[in-house]
């Protein structure tokens, strides 16, 4: 425990992710982290027989349909209880009594189906201390009667079984671009609306028995308040069901997803969407009695892991975060979004009710860079960096596109393509040219596609993930975007973002007015600067962009 004062107000951020659940507690006055705890589904709850936190169709041939990937919501609830027990053992549980607000992050797109009567017969047990007494534990409450869930295994973001539902949505709405313009993204298999549509078709009785549909994030909030909690706008905009302009459900999208059932019924099952800083209730008596949460501890609307990461990385207008991992991702805050069927997603901003955030995803990230490290540098990053520095900025006009896996951005791109300075295809490059091409190309692509969906003015870049430790790669990032590059110290941006958002919601309620998120973060320690841009190099990259875009289109024609 790092906290020395025993009277300081604290806030709790939770992250119910794919492989486990984490808790992070920070001080409300200076945002310092007090403690972190975690539970791993596979290791700590082996009786659910998950691998990587999920049930995968490849592991259960004959039991699951092609493309199905699910996880039991009972496991998520049991993991939450185990996590809180771990926290209780720390510092003899005194930490709970100082927590003023709680919020959660949830793996995005996953859906939980509450059985009819679950609020009255299951969740209500967490509230009824004055009647029949509180349940012995959370699992007892959720298993009571017929059980809380009409669909015992929740489809999650890894599920790819909904292609027919995606095509139906796009055809009925007038094409993928119109779906993107309304909902923020073209139809994606993992998006919740398409998962719900499949449940309606494949499990009609289970859907008929469903009273409320939660996202993973709002599911956690339901447990904490002991009743159904609303979906927030930011996570809700990752469902292909919400109109990102009106910030409410799209009647057209609901009608298509509902199929032969009623759009009004689906709307009732989803409930209202609320701003992400909303107070959705107070911590239920069960958690107060068992762990010592104070009676006035607020529960702030939960949100998805990507929106919470944006909050945790403290992005403002013009800031971009680039995650360099197995897959590469660029996040940004923008004021004038340009939804696109061919690149990225637009979500409602989790910390500004009037703003938007954008996300551009790449499947070919670190594994592709490692391929060229192994091919040309004997597996050595030092040698890879030496080759990168050997080739000139801009690679003398030589450009490479390396889609080792079928790419997300641009969609469907596959294979390796190399072009000489005249734009003619060539079979190979010298090792140093290959290395520079794979690094430069990724960040030129990010700049191009980010600008296409509205991220056009850049003020700083925050790098995270394994690749962020490579200062040579970070230098290329700074030069391509023409702004300073900083590095984040924490890897738990989602749980940290949930904690920041808990504090934000608490302060908004205290002051009875919306408090700008930047004011909440005024005490946060600055990020570490890694590189300033070389503006001469930036001009070279800016001049390359039109040619890069044209060559990318040529790759897609192959």
TrEMBL record:
Residues 156-310 form the Carbohydrate kinase FGGY N-terminal domain. One of its GO terms (biological process) is D-xylose metabolic process. CDD domains: ASKHA_NBD_FGGY_SpXK-like. Residues 321-505 form the Carbohydrate kinase FGGY C-terminal domain. Keywords: ATP-binding, Carbohydrate metabolism, Kinase, Nucleotide-binding, Transferase, Xylose metabolism. Its EC number is 2.7.1.17. It catalyses: D-xylulose + ATP = D-xylulose 5-phosphate + ADP + H(+). The keyword Kinase applies. InterPro entries: ATPase_NBD, Carb_kinase_FGGY, D-XK_euk, FGGY_C, FGGY_N. Gene3D superfamilies: 3.30.420.40. It comes from the Eukaryota. The keyword Endoplasmic reticulum does not apply. One of its GO terms (cellular component) is cytosol. GO terms for molecular function: ATP binding; D-xylulokinase activity. Belongs to the FGGY kinase family. PANTHER family: SUGAR KINASE, XYLULOSE KINASE. This is Xylulose kinase.
